[in-house]
């Protein structure tokens, strides 16, 4: 990327004139910023790390890692040398281009070094959540045909090696006992050379496989290629609004696509200092991370924001949060109440962004310069054509609910579902469109409003009700910390609305409270949207990325099998 070219990207990031920006935009223009546009040789780890060293930014801090027991910083140069070493370790064991190499460990500097090292060899990285149990790990390693795994002594017991004949090498970060047929990360890193020529790849060569759960069947291996970096880089600039001196914190784990696209690639392609915080969530811990590291751009998820909101003012008021310049959210609908609260609590409107594992990067967003309508996901990125279509692929008029679909292609879209091309085809069942599986509508100003997953939409007495709308109203009630809403079969109404609710501290689960909450929704939203049944729970079932698993609520309710639970939080 040339310095003067980066300037011109910054200028187009002024989306104040959205229509004009859309007209002028071309992906090819963005591609030109990469040196590989001219020579055709590409490697994500080189673009994200080594290039900054080559261009004189080697001494800049790339990574600030901390958890309860340590805090370490790494410059771009240090990350270059460490990932070179790890690349050499892998090469010594015969690993190279196209091999699938998985990572199964908690966040730590070694995880990030390992991932970059994998990419340098041209292998395809597969990050897994540390919380996965034996079957979840096995399913993913088996389906991908992984040849190597990087893990820790604590997690090793969940790797059923006998059942995974293709898994040749296990590299352990931590203590290894001799005679165990394991590779010690520490030993081999010590003796490996820190010089390495990365594997030069084609832009359509592999980058990552992220496993994600559908509503049925086994998890799907979403396959991404090097070319995705065009969009990671560009959205980092336009949507995250990353600038040279930013301290950026994405709270997501690399086991989730947000933790790679926006926890690794977008910040480092833009040469920005990246904060990683290990350990468990607590409001105090997160706010003190922002305060200590002077975080300026913060990307998190609705569940976290709701929990921070639930913690009450007395918590955030103890911290100095004025380093923040831009706050963003992804993963689930961001309730209007949370947007309004964020404005009050942080002085910033939380900017919602919509995208999926399959899309590889953000597609519909609230840009820094845009007027936010609280509750809306925003507008399509320049270069992205989104629409609401009916089941035949015809666009529906504004304010009508339908399938949220994207005109193909875009740079970061998945290239296949690993081992399952027919699953991949299902996303393109309407010719010319990628069908997201979300239902939404577009208003007369071109803002998109999420309604639910297609299969979550409730039909009560002929009214189509998006569960999110009801959930958003519910959490405006002072007693409600979290809410999940499903349609429960009902002989007269087709379905009635049932709400599962976790209460905030200090509220008691009584019938009077149920009655009060019912009336609150009825009066605030509509009678047909009010939950006729309410059940209080200590906790709601959620994925690791914070999505309330309505299908689990439904399974509880109807006494059905809950399906694949490998991504559930606890
Ligand atoms: C990045 C990520 C994708 C699904 C998507 C939708 C939901 C994501 C959202 C949102 C409403 C938003 N989703 N962002 N719903 N508003 N801003 O989340 O990927 O884990 O694959 O989930 O998440 O239902 O289809 P992934």
From TrEMBL:
<dbReference type="InterPro" id="IPR042099">
    <property type="entry name" value="ANL_N_sf"/>
</dbReference>
<dbReference type="InterPro" id="IPR025110">
    <property type="entry name" value="AMP-bd_C"/>
</dbReference>
<keyword id="KW-0067">ATP-binding</keyword>
<keyword id="KW-0547">Nucleotide-binding</keyword>
<dbReference type="Pfam" id="PF13193">
    <property type="entry name" value="AMP-binding_C"/>
</dbReference>
<protein>
    <recommendedName>
        <fullName>acetate--CoA ligase</fullName>
        <ecNumber>6.2.1.1</ecNumber>
    </recommendedName>
</protein>
<keyword id="KW-0007">Acetylation</keyword>
<dbReference type="InterPro" id="IPR020845">
    <property type="entry name" value="AMP-binding_CS"/>
</dbReference>
<feature type="domain" description="AMP-dependent synthetase/ligase">
    <location>
        <begin position="55"/>
        <end position="418"/>
    </location>
</feature>
<dbReference type="InterPro" id="IPR045851">
    <property type="entry name" value="AMP-bd_C_sf"/>
</dbReference>
<keyword id="KW-0436">Ligase</keyword>
<feature type="domain" description="AMP-binding enzyme C-terminal">
    <location>
        <begin position="469"/>
        <end position="547"/>
    </location>
</feature>
<dbReference type="InterPro" id="IPR000873">
    <property type="entry name" value="AMP-dep_synth/lig_dom"/>
</dbReference>
<dbReference type="Pfam" id="PF00501">
    <property type="entry name" value="AMP-binding"/>
</dbReference>
<dbReference type="GO" id="GO:0003987">
    <property type="term" value="F:acetate-CoA ligase activity"/>
</dbReference>
């Amino acid at each position: 990327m040339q310095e003067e070219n980066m300037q011109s990207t910054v200028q187009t990031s002024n989306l104040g004139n959205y229509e004009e920006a859309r007209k002028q935009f071309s992906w090819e223009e963005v591609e030109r910023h990469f040196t590989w546009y001219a020579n055709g040789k590409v490697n994500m780890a080189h673009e994200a790390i080594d290039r900054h060293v080559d261009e004189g930014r080697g001494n800049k801090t790339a990574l600030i890692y901390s958890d309860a027991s340590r805090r370490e910083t790494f410059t771009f140069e240090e990350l270059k040398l460490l990932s070179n070493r790890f690349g050499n370790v892998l090469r010594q064991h015969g690993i190279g281009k196209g091999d699938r190499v998985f990572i199964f460990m908690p966040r730590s500097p070694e995880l990030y070094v390992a991932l970059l090292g994998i990419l340098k060899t041209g292998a395809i990285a597969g990050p897994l959540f540390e919380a996965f149990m034996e079957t979840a790990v096995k399913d993913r390693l088996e389906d991908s045909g992984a040849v190597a795994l990087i893990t820790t002594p604590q997690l090793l017991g969940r790797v059923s090696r006998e059942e995974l004949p293709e898994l040749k090498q296990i590299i352990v970060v931590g203590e290894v006992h001799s005679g165990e047929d394991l590779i010690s990360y520490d030993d081999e890193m010590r003796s490996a050379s820190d010089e390495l020529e990365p594997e030069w790849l084609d832009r359509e060569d592999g980058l990552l496989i992220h496993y994600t759960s559908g509503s049925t069947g086994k998890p799907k291996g979403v396959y991404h290629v090097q070319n995705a970096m065009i969009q990671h880089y560009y959205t980092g600039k336009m949507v995250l609004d990353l600038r040279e001196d930013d301290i950026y914190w994405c709270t997501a784990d690399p086991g989730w696509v947000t933790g790679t696209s926006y926890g690794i690639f977008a910040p480092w392609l833009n040469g920005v200092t990246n904060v990683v915080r290990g350990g468990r969530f607590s409001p105090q811990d997160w706010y003190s991370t922002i305060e200590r590291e002077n975080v300026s751009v913060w990307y998190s998820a609705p569940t976290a924001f709701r929990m921070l909101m639930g913690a009450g003012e007395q918590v955030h008021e103890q911290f100095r949060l004025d380093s923040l310049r831009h706050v963003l959210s992804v993963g689930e609908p961001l309730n209007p109440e949370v947007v309004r609260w964020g404005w009050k609590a942080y002085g910033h409107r939380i900017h919602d962004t919509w995208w999926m594992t399959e899309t590889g990067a953000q597609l519909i967003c609230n840009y820094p310069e845009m007027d936010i309508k609280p509750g809306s996901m925003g507008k399509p990125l320049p270069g992205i054509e989104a629409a609401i279509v009916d089941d035949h692929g015809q666009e529906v008029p504004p304010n009508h609910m339908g399938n949220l679909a994207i005109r193909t292609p875009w740079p970061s879209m998945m290239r296949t579902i690993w081992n399952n091309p027919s699953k991949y085809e299902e996303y393109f069942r309407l010719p010319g469109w990628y069908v997201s599986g979300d239902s939404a509508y577009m208003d007369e100003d071109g803002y998109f409003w999420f309604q639910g997953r297609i299969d979550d939409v409730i039909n009560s007495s002929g009214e189509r009700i998006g569960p999110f709308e009801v959930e958003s109203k519910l959490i405006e009630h002072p007693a409600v910390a979290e809410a999940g809403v499903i349609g429960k079969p009902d002989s007269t109404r087709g379905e009635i609305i049932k709400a599962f609710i976790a209460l905030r501290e200090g509220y008691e689960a009584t019938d009077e409270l149920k009655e009060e909450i019912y009336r609150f929704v009825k009066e605030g939203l509509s009678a047909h949207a009010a939950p006729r049944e309410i059940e209080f729970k200590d906790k709601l079932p959620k994925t690791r990325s914070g999505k309330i698993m309505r299908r689990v609520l439904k399974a509880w309710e109807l006494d059905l099998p809950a399906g694949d639970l490998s991504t559930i939080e606890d």
